[in-house]
Hints:
Blueprint: H1 2-9, E1 23-26, H2 30-36, H3 50-53, E2 58-61, E3 117-121, E4 129-136, E5 141-142, E6 148-149, E7 166-170, H4 175-185, H5 188-193, E8 196-198, E9 215-227, E10 232-235, H6 237-242, E11 248-250, E12 289-304, E13 312-326, E14 333-345
Parallel strand pairs: 9-13, 12-14
Antiparallel strand pairs: 1-2, 3-4, 3-8, 5-6, 7-14, 8-9, 9-10, 11-12, 12-13
Amino acid sequence: ADQISRFKDLDSCSFEGSSTSDSITYCYQSNELYGVNPKAPMGGSAAATEGLSRALCVEKKNYAFPSQFYTNDDLQSSVSVFGTSAGQKEYSYTEDATISTADVSIDRYYDQNDTIAAFRSSAQAASGFISNGPGFFQLPQNDFSGACNDLNYVGFEVNVRNPQSCDRYVDASTATSFQSQCQRDQSVDRYVTDLYLARNAELQASSGVSSASDVIGVEIQRVLYYDSSTDTTSDVTTSYVANNCETTYYGDVRTSTGFVRTGQTCLFTSNSSWTSIDTSTANATSSVMFCANIVRDVVYYVNHSTTARGTIQQVLADVTITDLTATTASYPVVFAQSFAIEFTSANTAQQTTENGNL
């Protein structure tokens, strides 16, 4: 009775008896709608648009039939779940699904943006090819400070055609450190001639591979030499390949002219100060660390199959080399590098960057 009286006081109940309608509709007045939005159809609308304004009407229904109101508002005592002990439930889940490891295999197909396993040759290891270090094909790019970030990995079919140059810091605090970075870390071997990629996505560098058919070696397509003394670039591909040149460290170099260089067919500088190099410490007139043919720029060209497996078929590289000198110092030597990559396939369909259906 108290609940019914409360509803009646709130004008929430329909009148009993033979009412023509069992609902009451309340709508906002035009002046109220105008306060919300003065523009039609809300702030006073024509008959054609009046339907939208009626969306703000509220209809209340309350039938005058017995048992319409709850007689017992203590609902919890009648619900069985509140009478069960803690931890019990009136339902159960199905058994957990299990997947046999025999049904799981590494994805063998290259998909766009997949990382590519990378290897280097090793005569000492049980397998012929071991991880290149991080285990993935690297494409150094500049980080927030402008330094070269070696942990940037190539994504399959992700082209990087116009890279920004990055700053390579070479430790010159000791001759041993400078030599290691010259002949190993920033050498042509590391980035090209001793770099092998997994032909298919199923290979993992962490386990190594023994078969040469599982990997594809990066081949030199072109070698350019950048002469910092003249700020010029020349094509030295023929001489570099014919003489099996590589990145070479010289601990002491003769800086004076007049000493005839013998057997140094892999030095391409035109600077007269470096045309005479003596590997004998006794003949050196100064102790300057010299790194010949250090990597400056690399552009990779990866050709892959058009089949679903996307097998990598060939990898070529255009390499730009230069020379780097340093004296023993507590601060590093800095020079610029850049790395780019382009993926191609036998697919003759024209690629486009336009959006939409073509």
